[in-house]
Design brief:
4-stranded antiparallel beta sheet
Length: 310
C-alpha cells in the first residue's frame, strides 16, 4: 500500500504517474494497459483527447499540483471504493436508480424499470457482493472494527455512523442533481446514460487509480463526458479519494484505497498491506499487514466478503 499526498493532475502526467507510485498488490505500470476486450491501451490513448480534464470545471487541473489525501474518519476512501465497486459490478453510475437512500441507511435496490434491470438485478451474482460489503460498513456492528490502511504504519478507524449519515446525504444530493439534468454545464447532471467497463488498476496519487471506459447506452462516445463526474455526487464531489479524472478517448479514473476494491490482479509471496480487504473468496488465515504489523485475516461478523487484518 503506498498512499501519497502528492498528486500530479495534468492529463499527460497522470498516465505516467500511475507507474511512479507503487501500491502493494498492484502490478507495475509499463505505459500500457489492456482493456476489457484484451486490447492494449497506451498512455498516449489515455491522454490525447483534447476534451480531457484540463479545463477549470474538472476536479483536477493542471494548475493544481498538490492535493491532501485526507481520510480522518475513513469515509473518504470507503465512499470512493463504493463508486468503483458500483462501476465494476453494476456497469454504470446511476445511483438514483440503483441505490435507495430514503431509509435509515443506503441500500441496493432490485428489480427493473423501463430501461432494464436496476441495483442487485444488474449483478451476475444477484447480490453485488462487493458493493454490499461496502454498504454493510454503515452497520453499527462494524463500529470499532474496520481500519483503513494509511501511509506507512498509520491506520484510520472507520466511523460507521459518519459513513451512514454521509452516504444518505450525498445520495440525496445525487437525486436532486438527477431530477434537473442539463447538458453542457459543469455542475449539472446530464440526460446521457453511461455504460462503464473496468479496464485496469494501478498505483496512483492517494492510492489506487481505477480506470474505466465510459460510453453511452448506444455504444457511442459520451458527448458530455466531463459531466459524468456529476453522477458521482453520491460518493461526494469534493472527496479527495474520488478524484474523478477524464483521461481522454473515453477513459475515466477514480482513486480509492487498496483492498476495498477488486484490482483484477493477484500478488504472491508477500503479505497484503490492507487492514480491511473485500474479497468474494475466503482470505481467512492468509497473511496481512495493518499499520506495519503482520497478522492474519479473519472474516467480519457482519459480512461474508469482508476480511479484517487482526
Amino acid at each position: 500500500m503506498s498512499a501519497s499526498w502528492l498528486r500530479v493532475v495534468s492529463v499527460v502526467s497522470l498516465a505516467v504517474a500511475a507507474g511512479a507510485f507503487m501500491g502493494c498488490g498492484s502490478e507495475d505500470f509499463n505505459g500500457s494497459i489492456d482493456d476489457v476486450d484484451g486490447n492494449a491501451v497506451s498512455s498516449d490513448d489515455l491522454g490525447s483527447d483534447e476534451n480531457a480534464s484540463t479545463d477549470e470545471s474538472d476536479y483536477g487541473t493542471a494548475a493544481e499540483a498538490l492535493m491532501s489525501c485526507s481520510n480522518p474518519d475513513g469515509t473518504n476512501s470507503v465512499m470512493a471504493a463504493l463508486a468503483v465497486a458500483v462501476a465494476q459490478q453494476l456497469g454504470r453510475w446511476n445511483a438514483t436508480k440503483d441505490l435507495d437512500g430514503t431509509g435509515s441507511m443506503l441500500v441496493l435496490r432490485s428489480g427493473s424499470d423501463a430501461s432494464g434491470p436496476i441495483g442487485k438485478s444488474r449483478c451476475a451474482d444477484g447480490t453485488c457482493a462487493r458493493v454490499q460489503a461496502l454498504l454493510d460498513m454503515q452497520s453499527s456492528a462494524a463500529a470499532g472494527k474496520v481500519y483503513i490502511q494509511g501511509t506507512g504504519t498509520t491506520k484510520v478507524l472507520l466511523d460507521p455512523a459518519a459513513l451512514r449519515s454521509r452516504m444518505l446525504a450525498k445520495w440525496n444530493e445525487q437525486r436532486t442533481c438527477d431530477q434537473a439534468p442539463r447538458n453542457g454545464t459543469a455542475s449539472d447532471c446530464t440526460t446521457e446514460q453511461n455504460v462503464l467497463k473496468y479496464v485496469s488498476a494501478a498505483a496512483g496519487g492517494c492510492d489506487m487509480n481505477f480506470t474505466f471506459s465510459a460510453k453511452g447506452t448506444n455504444g457511442l462516445a459520451l458527448q458530455y463526458i466531463n459531466q459524468l463526474k456529476n453522477e458521482l455526487k453520491f460518493a461526494d464531489s469534493v472527496n479527495p479519494y474520488l478524484n474523478f479524472t477524464n483521461l481522454g478517448n473515453g477513459y475515466v479514473s477514480i482513486d480509492p484505497t487498496y483492498g476495498l476494491d477488486d484490482t483484477g490482479t493477484t500478488s504472491t509471496g508477500s503479505c497484503s498491506a490492507a487492514c480491511t480487504k473485500i474479497s468474494t473468496t475466503s482470505l481467512v488465515g492468509t497473511c496481512c499487514s495493518c499499520g506495519g504489523v503482520s497478522k492474519l485475516y479473519s472474516k467480519a461478523a457482519w459480512n461474508n466478503s469482508t476480511f479484517l487484518c487482526q
